[in-house]
Write a structure and sequence with these properties.
single chain, alpha/beta, Rossmann fold, six-stranded parallel beta sheet, 6 strands, binds 6-O-phosphono-beta-D-glucopyranose, binds magnesium ion, EC 5.4.2.6, carbohydrate metabolism, phosphoprotein
C-alpha cells in the first residue's frame, strides 16, 4: 500500500471558525432590506460561493435578477461586506471552532503540510484575528484563483504550492460547493456539518469537535 497522507487543506468559513454564520447574518439583513427572505436551507447554496454569485442567487430567489444595474449590484455586495467586516472585527482566538487548534498542532507535529483554500477576500483578516497564520504552509484565497468552487482550481493550487500530489491530500469543507471542488480535485473530502447536504464527501463529521487527527487519518487510509 503506497497511499500516503501529506497535506490537509482547510476551507476557512464554517470549518476553522464560525464565520459562515456571520456571512448568513449579513446576507439575511441585506436580503430583508430588498424584501427577500431566505432560510438556512437556502443558505446552504451560498456557502463556499463568491460574494457576487451569492448576491445573484439571492436576487434570483426574490425574482429581482434584472432589477439592478451592475454598479448597483456592486454597491449591494459592498454593503453586505461592510456589515460582515464589522462582525469579524470583534473576533479573537477564542472564536476558533472546537478541536481545530489541537488538529493544527498535531498535523504540524506529524509533519503533515497545512493549506488554506478560501473563497473569501476577507480570509487574511480572519486568519489574523484568530492568530493562526503561522500554522499554514500556504494560503490560497479568492484573489489568487479565477474559478470559484465547485471548480477544483483553489484546492489544486494549494496542493501545487505545497508541492504534493492531490491524491495525498485531505480537503475539509462545510459547503456543498466545497466538497464538490475537493472531489473534482481528486482529493479525499471531509465534510463538516449536515450529512444530507454534504453526502458527496468521503467522510462526514457533525462538528469540528469530531475532527481529530486520529479520526481523519483512519478515514483517509480506510478508503
Ligand atoms: C466563502 C463563504 O468562504 O467566501 C461564502 O463560504 C462567501 O459564504 C465567500 O460568500 C466570499 O467571501 P467574501 O468575504 O469575499 O465576501
Ligand atoms: Mg465554508
Amino acid at each position: 500500500m503506497n497511499k500516503q497522507l501529506k497535506a490537509v487543506i482547510f476551507d476557512l468559513d464554517g470549518v476553522i471558525t464560525d464565520t459562515a454564520e456571520y456571512h448568513f447574518i449579513a446576507w439575511k439583513q441585506l436580503a430583508e432590506e430588498l424584501g427577500i427572505t431566505f432560510d438556512r436551507a437556502f443558505n446552504e447554496q451560498l456557502k463556499g460561493v463568491s460574494r457576487m454569485e451569492s448576491l445573484e442567487r439571492i436576487l434570483a430567489l426574490g425574482s429581482q435578477a434584472d432589477r439592478y444595474t451592475m454598479a448597483e449590484k456592486e454597491a449591494l455586495a459592498h454593503k453586505k461586506n461592510e456589515h460582515y467586516k464589522q462582525l469579524i472585527a470583534r473576533m479573537t482566538p477564542d472564536d476558533l471552532l472546537p478541536g481545530i487548534l489541537d488538529l493544527l498542532r498535531e498535523l504540524k507535529r506529524q509533519n503533515i503540510k497545512i493549506g488554506l483554500a478560501s473563497a473569501s477576500k476577507n480570509a487574511f483578516t480572519v486568519i489574523e484575528r484568530l492568530q493562526i497564520g503561522a500554522y499554514f504552509d500556504t494560503i490560497v484565497d479568492a484573489a489568487k484563483v479565477k474559478n470559484s468552487k465547485p471548480h477544483p482550481e483553489i484546492f489544486l493550487t494549494a496542493a501545487e504550492q505545497l508541492g504534493v500530489h492531490p491524491s495525498t491530500c485531505i480537503g475539509v469543507e462545510d459547503a456543498q460547493a466545497g466538497v464538490a471542488a475537493i472531489k473534482a480535485a481528486n482529493m479525499f473530502a471531509i465534510g463538516v456539518g449536515d450529512k444530507e447536504a454534504l453526502k458527496e464527501a468521503d467522510y462526514i463529521v457533525e462538528t469540528t469537535a469530531d475532527l481529530t487527527y486520529d479520526a481523519i487519518v483512519r478515514a483517509f487510509y480506510r478508503e
